[in-house]
Design a protein that fits this description.
Residues 8-417 form the Major facilitator superfamily (MFS) profile domain. This protein is an all-alpha fold. It has helices at residues 3-28, 30-33, 43-74, 77-97, 101-104, 107-136, 143-147, 149-171, 174-179, 184-201, 207-210, 224-228, 231-251, 253-261, 267-295, 298-320, 325-343, 346-351, 359-375, 378-387, 392-411, 425-428.
């Protein structure tokens, strides 16, 4: 890994961290501001309404994936990454100043909804832009390692949110957190986005994109028509994302609520469990990504799917009766270790499926659709099962999604050796198999 490659990874990851800090603090602080935007009454119902708006952000992600994926393929990865962080900054400011139900009635809900739509647009493009950028910025035999920093930065953003939550929980009263202090993380997120905007304005474009001869003379570049020519790969992205995104959101954003609302841990302890588990989870991402560079992507994906299919129900059942910090931490770590088989490499696997001219859109739109259908609704589905008195049904739902993805992982081809510099994969034939990567220790 050369110095320039590390610089690209750092800038891409720093922006991704801020993006996902803003995205996740909505979920982690929802327990405090849910009652601020709806009439007083049923706490579970208010939380469901708030998480319903959270899900709306996911349904905007396909739109953001299409718009910003198109920008990434036609104008460059740098342009798309700069635009995503601008949208995220605007959405964080809106949430920070949104009026409560007592002040503006449902007007506050409208502001919250607009902010979440902007966040959905932003994150819909951010995932693909950063996945493409990190994959293209690395040497062929380091793509798994380099792209694993996407989830390192995503988790770092969530850890910052959880860390801030723990600090606020231990320094402020419950009344303060429910009345006004929940706005603090969104103010911090807006400031962080402004700093990253400056960094991304000065970032370097990837050589793979810069050296693509069709970058400026192909009118079909980054269009739905071009993506349709690679529809098989697009549907593959949706299918391989299904199990991973449900499992990921179950053991990250939903875990704290599950530990406090179902397992009976107090909120500070539940947050501390999530923080410690996510920190270790973050640290092992590059190790798993590097392993995939040696043995391939499929072995890790299959390991995740088998583990998630058969261990989800036992882990969630035992977590329900954990009762204290250490048992809850151990079970959470086991679950996240299983999920690592997906998170550490899913970015590069998807980027490796598409040629340069459609790579950003090819990753963005199908992935955003899968997240809208499965990731964004995970918490809402979990709360729906809980409200219906059959919370264990959600455990089987997660296991079932993983089982579907397992079929895909077993039948898909290996992508580790594919050459990212190919431009028109359609001309090679969909069945031609992976092309050997150019070996270079210093870069693409």
């Amino acid at each position: 890994m050369g110095r320039e490659q590390w610089k690209k990874i750092w800038v891409g990851s720093a922006g991704n961290m801020v993006e996902w800090f803003d995205w996740f603090v909505y979920a982690s602080f929802a327990v405090y501001f849910a009652d601020s935007f709806f009439p007083k009454g049923n706490d579970t119902a208010n939380l469901m309404n708030t998480m319903g708006i959270f899900a709306v952000g996911f349904f905007m992600r396909p739109v953001g994936g299409w718009l910003l994926g198109r920008v990434g393929d036609r104008k460059g990865r740098k342009a798309a990454l700069t635009l995503t962080v601008t949208l995220m900054s605007a959405s964080a400011i809106l949430i920070a100043v949104a009026p409560t139900y007592a002040v503006a009635g449902y007007g506050g809900v409208a502001v919250l909804l607009i902010a979440r739509m902007l966040q959905g647009l932003s994150v819909g493009g951010e995932y693909a832009a950063s996945a493409t950028y990190l994959t293209e910025a690395s040497a062929p035999d380091r793509r798994g390692f380099a792209s694993s920093f996407q989830y390192v930065s995503m988790t770092a953003g969530q850890l910052l949110g959880l860390g801030l939550q723990i600090v606020l929980q231990r320094t402020m009263s419950e009344d303060a957190l429910h009345s006004w202090a929940w706005r603090i993380p969104f103010i911090i997120g807006a400031l962080g986005a402004a700093i990253v905007f400056y960094l991304r304005r000065n970032m370097l474009e990837t050589e793979v994109y810069a050296q693509d001869d069709s970058a400026h003379n192909d009118p079909a570049r980054g269009t739905i028509k071009a993506l349709w020519a690679h529809r098989r790969e697009a549907f593959l992205v949706i299918a391989l994302t299904m199990g991973g995104t449900v499992a990921y959101y179950t053991y990250t954003t939903y875990l704290t609520k599950y530990l406090s609302g179902t397992a009976g841990l107090d909120k500070p302890t539940a947050s501390l469990v999530s923080f410690c588990a996510l920190f270790i989870f973050m640290c092992i991402q590059p190790l798993a990504g590097r392993l995939s560079d040696r043995i391939g992507r499929r072995p890790l994906l299959i390991t995740f799917a088998v583990g998630s299919t058969f261990l989800t129900v036992p882990i969630m059942t035992l977590l329900k009766h954990a009762g204290s910090f250490w048992p809850a931490l151990g079970l959470s770590l086991l679950a996240l270790l299983v999920v690592t088989g997906y998170t550490s490499i899913n970015a590069c696997v998807k980027a490796e499926l598409f040629p340069t001219g459609i790579r950003a859109l090819g990753v963005a739109l199908p992935y955003a659709i899968a997240n809208a259908l499965f990731g964004g609704t995970a918490e809402y589905v979990a709360l729906w099962f809980k409200k219906g008195g059959i919370e264990s049904g959600y455990y089987w739902y997660v296991a079932g999604c993983a089982a579907v993805s397992l079929i895909v992982y077993v039948t898909m081809r290996e992508t580790r050796t594919i050459d990212l510099n190919r431009v028109q994969r359609a001309e090679q034939g969909a069945e031609s198999g992976p092309q050997p990567a150019k070996s270079s220790p210093s870069g693409v």
